[in-house]
Design a protein that fits this description.
Chain lengths: ~210, ~100
C-alpha cells in the first residue's frame, strides 16, 4: 500500500462524464437553432410566395460551395481523431490545420455573400429591403439571424480547433487522453449539421 | 492493485473505439452524393417532388454525421436514447406548430 501512496496520483478523468457534458451542451445548441427553424417554418407557412422570392435572390453557388467546405472539414476532424488514436500525431495536426483552413474559407465566402447583399441594399433596415413586402423583410431578417448566428459558431469552432491543435502539438492531448479533441470535434460536427439544414431552408427551397 | 492509472486506461479504452479512415471517407462520399441529389431536387424538380426530397435527404445527411462522424454508432445506448429524446422533442414541436398553423 505504501508504494501506491508514494506514487503521484494522476489526475482523475471521467471521459464518459466529459462527453455526456458536451452532448448536453450540444442539446442546448440544437434547441437554440431549433427555435429559429420553428420561426422560419411558421413564417414560411404564412408568407410562402415572399419566402420563395427571397430565396431566389440569394447566392446559391456560395451556399452550395460552403456546404461542400463544411462537409469536408467534418471529414478532416473525424480523421484527426482516428489518426491520434492510432498514434499518428503529425496526421492529426495536419487534419486539424486543414479543418481550420476550411473554416476560414467558409467565413470568407460568407463575407463575400453578405457584402453582395449589403451592396444591393438588402440588409435589415436597408433602403432596398424596406421597399419589399413584409414577408420578404422577414425572410431576410431570418437569413441574417440564422446565418449570422451560425457564422459566430464557426468562429468559436475555429478558435476551439486552434486551441486543441496547440494541445496536440504540446502533447497535452495524447492517444490515451484526447477528450478535448473529441469534444471539439463534436462541436464542429454540430456546426456542420446546422448548416446541412440551413442550405435547403434558405438557398434551395426557393 | 487497482490503481487509478489502470482505471484511467480502462476509461480510455471505453471511449477509444478507432473508426477506420476508409469508413469516414465512404460516409463523406455518400454525403457529397446526397448533397448533389439535394441540389438537383431543389433546383430542377417540380415542387411536388422537391419538397419531399428535401425533407428526406436533409435529415438523412444529418443522421449520417451524427451516427458516424459524431461516433453515435459506437456510443452506449443511454447516449443514443437521450439524443433521440431531444430530436423527437424538436420534431414534435415542429409538428405541433404546423398543426396549429393549419387550423388557423
Amino acid at each position: 500500500m505504501s508504494s501506491v501512496h508514494a506514487q503521484p496520483h494522476p489526475a482523475h478523468k471521467d471521459y464518459e462524464g466529459a462527453k455526456l457534458g458536451m452532448w448536453l451542451f450540444l442539446f442546448t445548441e440544437i434547441l437554440l437553432f431549433g427555435g429559429l427553424f420553428l420561426l422560419y417554418s411558421a413564417y414560411r407557412a404564412r408568407y410562402p410566395l415572399e419566402f420563395h422570392h427571397g430565396g431566389q435572390h440569394l447566392n446559391t453557388f456560395i451556399g452550395v460551395a460552403n456546404t461542400f467546405i463544411l462537409l469536408t472539414s467534418s471529414l478532416t476532424v473525424a480523421l484527426a481523431i482516428s489518426a491520434l488514436q492510432k498514434g499518428n500525431r503529425k496526421l492529426t495536426l495536419t487534419c486539424l490545420g486543414i479543418t481550420i483552413l476550411f473554416g476560414l474559407m467558409f467565413l470568407m465566402n460568407k463575407y463575400i455573400e453578405w457584402s453582395e447583399e449589403i451592396a444591393k441594399g438588402l440588409y435589415p433596415n436597408g433602403p432596398e429591403l424596406l421597399k419589399l413586402p413584409n414577408g420578404e423583410k422577414i425572410f431576410y431578417g431570418l437569413y441574417y439571424a440564422m446565418t449570422g448566428l451560425h457564422g459566430l459558431h464557426v468562429v468559436a469552432g475555429i478558435i476551439a480547433l486552434a486551441i486543441v491543435w496547440n494541445f496536440v502539438r504540446r502533447n497535452s492531448v495524447t492517444p490515451t487522453d484526447f477528450n478535448k479533441l473529441e469534444n471539439t470535434g463534436l462541436y464542429w460536427h454540430l456546426v456542420d449539421v446546422i448548416w446541412i439544414f440551413l442550405l435547403p431552408l434558405l438557398y434551395l427551397a426557393a | 492493485m487497482s490503481t487509478s492509472v489502470e482505471h484511467q486506461a480502462e476509461g480510455a479504452g471505453e471511449h477509444g473505439h478507432v473508426v477506420p479512415y476508409a469508413t469516414f471517407v465512404r460516409v463523406w462520399l455518400i454525403l457529397l452524393f446526397l448533397t448533389g441529389l439535394l441540389i438537383l431536387a431543389g433546383t430542377k424538380f417540380h415542387e411536388s417532388l422537391s419538397v419531399p426530397a428535401l425533407l428526406t435527404l436533409t435529415p438523412l445527411k444529418a443522421g449520417l454525421v451524427f451516427f458516424y462522424f459524431m461516433h453515435l454508432k459506437y456510443e452506449k445506448p443511454f447516449l443514443k436514447l437521450i439524443v433521440l429524446i431531444v430530436l423527437a422533442t424538436l420534431t414534435l414541436l415542429i409538428g405541433l406548430i404546423f398543426l396549429d398553423l393549419s387550423f388557423r
